[in-house]
Amino acid sequence: MLGKLYRFSMRWIAGFTLCLLVLHETAADLYLHSLRGSNNRLNEATATRANANRVFDSQNNNRGGYNVGDVDKDKSGNDEGKQYRMQYFQSGSATPGATDKSYITLEWTNQHGCGGSEDTDPQKQNCHMVLQYMCQDDVSSPVGTADTLRNGVTTQTPNHNRAQSLQENKATAQNRKNNNVNTQRVLQESWDWYDKCYMRERNKGLFTADQKLKKNNGLGVSAAIYTRQNPNGNRYGYECPEERDYFPYWHPTPWTDIAVLTDNTTLCSYFQEGSFNRKAYGECVEEYGDGSRKHWSKWNNAQECTANGGQWVVFSSYIEKAPQYTTAGQCNSQAERGNRYVWAVPYDATDVTKAECLVQAPPVDCKQADWSRSNHLGNGVNGEANRYQWTLPFFPSNSDKRCVLRMRYNISTDDYAPYSTDSTKNLNDGIEGIASPIEDNPYVDVGGRSALRLNINTDQTGRIFQDRSHVFKLLSRPAEIKSDKIFNVNVRGKRGNIVQVYPAVEYDFIPNNLQMSATDSVHIQWTGSNSHNNGGGGGDGQAGDEGQGQGGTDRSNIVQIADLNDNFPMPFERSNMWNNANIRWIYHGKTDVSAENLAVTMASAGYYRCVKKSDCPEAEHNNYIVETKTKMNNLLNNAPASFQGAVLRFQRGTYHYMSTRNNNFSNRSQKSTITVV
Ligand SMILES: *[C@@H]1O[C@H](CO)[C@@H](O)[C@H](O)[C@H]1NC(C)=O
Ligand SMILES: *[C@@H]1O[C@H](CO)[C@@H](O)[C@H](O)[C@H]1NC(C)=O
Ligand SMILES: *[C@@H]1O[C@H](CO)[C@@H](O)[C@H](O)[C@H]1NC(C)=O
Ligand SMILES: *[C@@H]1O[C@H](CO)[C@@H](O)[C@H](O)[C@H]1NC(C)=O
Fold first, then answer.
1. Ligand 2 touching residue 74 (CB < 6 A)
2. How far is the CA of 44 from the centre of ligand 3 (A)?
3. Fewer CB within 10 Å, N side or C side of the chain?
4. Residue 123 has pLDDT above 50, yes or no
5. Confidence (pLDDT) at 413
6. According to the model, what pLDDT value does residue 667 have?
């Protein structure tokens, strides 16, 4: 022991200052604010989330996160159909430089800092952010079937019972799945995805420091559910821990890569070449007695796979299929509106001998992460939270999609070389000469008689944080906005004052200062929850939901103000925002809505559609007429929490607006500007 202590001490003295700075921080965290990150919340009225294992491993504080949106003024409760899914229009093409794109401003806060220039703003750690999404064809049932993306209506983790034996037959495996998957519970990755991870050997070439990784229960496989960061194999939804911890992953995954924001752009070629968007990855395929594909194999490499009777198959990623092209020649020659078409075996194929025509995502975007301040959750350059403008995908089939967004924040120290340290450096007490560059709670010899104990957990020295959205939709564009350039303006934040919502944020429009041209369009839309009471004990923060209107409820609306310093809306007669708007698309049909009716719709979050019955003779508008409907509460209590909104163009000018309910001078401001040039 003394010898070992000495060996380490020299190394540690060199890194001493750095280690103390970096490793004392235990609560790091990443919170998505736009899209609204769940941080594993669903609809709980408590300040702390009910279940940190519900969907994914966030490693975040128990507070933070946003509840799923509700369609109407009441809680969606046990009816997933009453949850609101944000509905963004897909891009109109994937052609680089084309103007028919849709953009969403993603915003997040991260605790440890990242990015900027190494020379002028050195950071205390290496880091990168990985942004990804997953989509599937939308279905009319809110909960769908076993493999449909859904939020669920309870905060419980979906079930998983392990196989009783590696010889399990097909019917037994199918039964296990049927018994486990419950449409009341969330689903992002599929049950098969987790089960496969549970059965497959982990990558034994990985650096695990001195962590002792277990074997899975009963089956004797040291599986991909065990990693340096998750040595006990804890389960979070149906996420695969090995895939969670490493990017680019070396097997096919259901995720499509959007962007990597890194502190070191030298690594961009590594990320881009390794991204599953364009690179095919192998997986071992084994069969049941009847010749059908098993959803799992124990083998994680070609050699052991084929030596044990399996077939090593290379699979490709896709955003959707193009079954109308039935030969390789037809498929590979397509380039419809900028997308790439490949004739290949899809990652989720059941018949692995059959190539199909696949539409692939663009290569992952890789760029320098913007600077953010260490230990100051959310402080980026000029005090702004960091953002990324996501160009939404284009799906040539014109079908609607159901999707989720995922973001990971990866930090590692300089205590070991992040990309070249492998299992040869793992601590193995039996073999002389192998010394892990890091060790749990080592003692540092500072030359005197007493050793200093460093606060180090080797499962945390390189660490990933994560947040994900609830389910949202990417809608195919209606004819009237086929070639529009569409910016999305939404609302971020939740009810409460700063100490009550932290580490989530208070209300604001996002982006809150949009510059666009008179030929660009903006889709205004928002969602809110009726269960943001922030009750219970408050956890690490404060309980309570300070704010206007009925407790626990989020509401937003838009009225024009003359100046950002004003807190009173302009009377309609003096306003110009709605007179200068051209409606490209509006929820519930027809676009020949008068400026006054548009103003009423926006001010009431869609509670009203028209002032007079004669303006809105259509049956679907019957229940939305000011003349006849129960009066709207002046704090919007009986207005819907979510609003599908409208796609608008504006004439040149500057338009300031606010939400009348949430704006409360000296307490909170929810104001924003659209500048049209
Ligand atoms: C995080 O960074 C480490 C290098 O420090 C790398 O091995 C790993 O693949 C990365 N994981 C993710 C999810 O980015
Ligand atoms: C960036 O990554 C490259 C490739 O791994 C490495 O050689 C270089 O030292 C890194 N630069 C910094 C500033 O960390
Ligand atoms: C503004 O907020 C404070 C504190 O939350 C509240 O007491 C007050 O009534 C609010 N004012 C209005 C006009 O809603
Ligand atoms: C909230 O606003 C009210 C005025 O509506 C003001 O009297 C009060 O001091 C404010 N509270 C805080 C905490 O700023």
1. no
2. 25
3. N
4. yes
5. 66
6. 80
Which has the closest alpha carbon to 338: 91, 30, 86?
Answer: 91
- Contacts of residue 362, Cβ cutoff 8 Å, sequence gap at least 6: 94, 277, 338, 340
Check if 265 has its Cβ closer than 6 Å to any atom of ligand 2: no
Q: Which residues line ligand 3 (CB under 6 A)?
A: 546, 548, 664, 667
Conformation bin of residue 33: beta by default, left when phi > 0, alpha when psi is -120 to 50: alpha
Choice between 459 and 257, residue whose per-residue pLDDT is larger: 257
Ligand closest to Cα of 250 equals: 1
pLDDT band at 167 (very low <50, low <70, confident <90, very high): very high
Tell me if 267 CB under 6 Å of ligand 2.
yes
Report whether 555 contacts 641 (CB < 8 A): yes
> Whose alpha carbon is nearest atom 5 of ligand 1?
418
Instruction: Give pLDDT tens digits for 356-412.
Output: 999 999 999 999 988 787 777 777 777 788 999 999 999 999 999 999 999 999 987
The DSSP string of 150-213 is B--SS-PPPP----S-TT--HHHHHHHHHHH--TTS-BSS-HHHHHHHHHSBP-TTS--TT---
pLDDT (tens digit per residue) in 607-642? 999 999 999 888 889 999 999 999 999 999 999 999
pLDDT digits (tens, 9 = 90+) for 505-557: 999 999 999 999 999 999 999 999 999 999 999 999 999 999 999 999 999 99
Query: From atom 7 of ligand 2, which residue's Cα is the shortest distance away?
Result: 266
- If you take atom 8 of ligand 1, which residue's CA is the nearest one? 246
Q: What is the 3-state secondary structure (H, E, C) of 93-122?
A: CCCCCCCCCEEEEEEEEECCCECCCCCCCC
**111: exposed, middle or buried (Cβ count in 10 Å: 0-12, 13-18, 19+):** buried
Letter string b/e over residues 256-278, b meaning 16 or more CB atoms within 10 A of that residue's CB: bbbbbbbbbeebbeebbebbbbb
Distance 537 CA to ligand 1 centre (A): 35
Res 2 pLDDT > 80:
no
Q: What is the pLDDT of residue 416?
A: 64
As a whole number of angstroms, the distance between CA 408 and CA 465 comes to 6
CA of 555 to the centre of ligand 3 (A): 15
Question: For the chain, which domains are there?
Answer: 2-36+86-412 (no CATH), 485-676 (2.60.40)
Give the pLDDT confidence of 295-306 residue by residue, as tens digits: 999 999 999 999
Mutate to test the pocket of ligand 1, among 114, 412, 465 (most ligand atoms within 8 A of CB): 412
Please give the torsion angle defined by the CA atoms of residues 195, 197, 201 and 202, in that order, rounded to the nearest 10 degrees.
-160
Atom of ligand 3 nearest to the CA of 635: 14
- Tell me the DSSP string of 400-459: -EEEEEEEEEEEE-TTS-TTT--GGGS--TTSTT---S--SSPEEE-SSSSEEEP---TT
CA proximity to 321, closest of 292, 355, 284, 295: 355
Of 79-83, 124-128, 497-501, the one with minimum mean pLDDT is 124-128
Structure tokens that stand for 321 in this block: 């299929």
Assess whether the C-beta atom of 118 lies below 6 angstroms from ligand 2. yes
Nearest bound ligand to the CA of residue 244 = 1
**Ligand approaching nearest to the C-alpha of 547:** 3
Q: Band the pLDDT of 127: cuts 50, 70, 90.
A: confident
Q: Measure Cα distances from 206 to 227, 421, 574, 579 in Å.
A: 9, 8, 66, 62
Q: Output the residue whose Cα is nearest ligand 3's atom 14.
A: 548
**By alpha-carbon position, which residue is closest to atom 1 of ligand 3?**
664
Contact of 386 with 370, CB cutoff 8 Å: yes
